[in-house]
Design a protein that fits this description.
This protein has 92 residues and is mainly α. Helix content is 80%, strand content 0%. It has one domain.
């Protein structure tokens, strides 16, 4: 977990989750399995990332990250952005 490449790959996974969620909005999935997975991702990202702001805002402030950047990065990447920042594995 102290490896920056690990966190970059995790962040890429978060972006892929958003792309999956958005694609399901634009082109609804026919398959029952994909539809259920899409709902989990949509709710997880759509509810989870905003809730993570309670954790990320103090961390961003402590590390000198501008408020706007903290909000955007948390909404896009979730914990894969703020957790390594908190642990000192990545820089702003």
């Amino acid at each position: 977990m102290k490896n920056q490449l690990f966190w970059k790959l995790m962040m890429a996974g978060s972006v892929l989750g958003w792309l999956f969620a958005i694609s399901g909005l634009l082109f609804p999935f026919e398959s029952g399995t994909l539809r259920v997975l899409w709902w989990f991702v949509l709710l997880g990202w759509g509810i989870g990332h905003p809730l993570e702001l309670a954790q990320s805002l103090p961390i961003g402030k402590l590390r000198g990250v501008p408020l706007k950047d903290t909000i955007i990065n948390t909404m896009v990447f979730g914990f894969t952005w703020w957790l390594p920042l908190k642990l000192g594995f990545t820089e702003k």
